[in-house]
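We examine the record.

___
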Amino acid sequence: MAITTLPAKILKETMDSLLPLDLKEGRFDELIDRMRKAMVVHHGIGLAANQISEHLSLFVIDRDLAQEQGVSDVFANPSITNASTEYEDLEEGCLSIPGYWTPIRRSKKIMFKALDGKGNKVKFRARGLLARVLQHETDHLNGTTIRDRARAQKKS
């Protein structure tokens, strides 16, 4: 499965929400499986639906990372409800911008809510790498890439 790269318009748009019932009834299971496989094949730790040209508010993260943190590896309609004012600058890359790496400032801790892959509401506190991945992928679903974030951070 090919990864959608800049300057594709879909990477700059806000994605469409999913209905919990559609997730509960498995309507996105095949897509989720394809996303997981594409993420692994392309050596990512997260993959948003718009990165494979699907206009949906859905992303997957690395299964091992999710398991270590006791969370799902599938999230739909995510939002960051709170973010700490303690930040960390780390270099990030993105499958949709091959070869581009840049330091990105992100909150060290966040409160996160979403639907899991089965349509259940989840809400939890994340920190460290998990918090960074969730912020990166949520950005994607809101039409923001690391290039956009890097530009904004340079202006501030």
Summary: The mean pLDDT is 97.
